[in-house]
Structure formats: structure tokens, C-alpha cells
Amino acid sequence: MDDETNVDESFFVLSSIFVHFRHSICEPSLAIHVIDLGLRTPDLRLSMELDLTRITWPVVAALLLVVLIGFGLLGAAVTPVDAQGEPALLTAQRWTAARLARHANAETEALVKDATELRRLLEREHPDPIDAMLLAQRIYAEHRTGSTATVAARQALIVAAEMAARYAVGAATRQEALNTFGEAMASIEALSPEPPVT
């Protein structure tokens, strides 16, 4: 039992906390007192007092005005505008459309990255069958599901990766693999405003 007591005493023990509000018309203040923190020493008494008598209402009003102006400037900077330059109301449909567009853009970036890896594999004179198989499996696992905006590009890249794996083991010709890769690239380029493979 003494061991448990010693362990308990080795930590700071907060034995009493109380908050005292003293409010009057002339002298409003807030006092927070924390007492009896000890580590096998005499009680350490700690207190903190925040005096609100020096804060005047004009100062509070000025601070609130600065905060409101800051929020207004932030809102003007981030609010989307329509074709006429008028601020657009952010409806639930617009939030959903923006979220779906971000998701489709992320999928397009992943498609471009994987297409680049597939292109590098097909550029080799004799691609390693294991590397080709692992790449095809990873592409299938990553792109078998996603948004409807990228479905054609995802499926075309999966087929191209499968054809590259078949080419690596000798079950398809190089030209078949290059043709399916070209079709996949055409689908990906239709999604991406910039040429994906450099």
C-alpha cells in the first residue's frame, strides 16, 4: 500500500481548483486560483488573476470592428464568382460538385502517374514479367473503383496494364500492348488539360 502511495505522491496532484468571479460595476475582474500542487514538498500555491478594469468599451468595440473587417476581407478573397463577376452563393449542390471535381482531379493525377510507369515498362526491350505483373495488379487494385468521370480512363489503363503483363510473358505482341496503351493515354488525355506523359 505504501508503494502505491509513493507512486501517487510522485505525480503532481491537483487537489483543488476553483474559479472565483468577482463582478462589480466599477471593478470587474476574474480570478482563477489553483492550490495544493505538491511533489513531496510543502504545498505550492499558485494563483492567477486577470484584471478587466483597464479594458474599456471603445477598445472592445475597436477589436470587434477589426475582427469583422478581417472576416469580410477573407470572405471576399475566397468567395467564388459567377461568369458576370458576381459573388456566387455556395449551395449544397456546389459544395458537392466541387468535392467531386477534386476527387476526379486526384484520380486523374493517379492515372497519369501510373500511365507513366506503364510507359516506362513498355519502353524496355525485354520487360521483366514479375515487374509487369506487379504493376498490373497494383493498377487494377488502385483503379477498379472511382468516380464516374474517370471510369473510361480507369478501365482503359487496367486493360493496357493487363496487356503489358501478357506481353512481358510472351502471350501478346508488343504492338498489341502499345495499341492498348495508346487507347488508355487517349482516355487519360481527355480528362487532363495538360499532356500527362512527357
Describe the structure.
By secondary structure, this protein is α+β, with helices and mostly antiparallel strands. It is 57% helix and 12% strand. It is built from six helices and three strands. The chain has helices at residues 2-9, 57-78, 92-123, 129-143, 151-168, 174-191, and strands at 16-22, 29-37, 44-51. A three-stranded antiparallel beta sheet has the order 1-2-3, with no helix packed on it. The longest helix has 32 residues, at 92-123. It is elongated, with a radius of gyration of 33 Å. Residues 3-42 have low confidence and may be disordered.
The description of the largest β-sheet is: 3 strands, antiparallel
Strand content: 5-15%
Helix content: 55-70%
Q: Uncertain segments of ≥5 residues (pLDDT<50)?
A: 3-42
The tally of beta strands, per DSSP, is 3
Number of helices: 6
What is the topology, as strand order, of the major beta sheet? 1-2-3
Quote the average pLDDT.
77
Structure in a nutshell:
The chain is α+β, with helices and mostly antiparallel strands and 198 residues long. The chain has helices spanning 2-9, 57-78, 92-123, 129-143, 151-168, 174-191; strands at 16-22, 29-37, 44-51. It is elongated, with a radius of gyration of 33 Å.
Q: What characteristics describe this protein?
A:
disordered N terminus, 198 residues, 6 helices, elongated
Record the SSE blueprint.
Blueprint: H1 2-9, E1 16-22, E2 29-37, E3 44-51, H2 57-78, H3 92-123, H4 129-143, H5 151-168, H6 174-191
Antiparallel strand pairs: 1-2, 2-3
Helix pairs in contact: 3-4, 3-5, 3-6, 4-5, 5-6
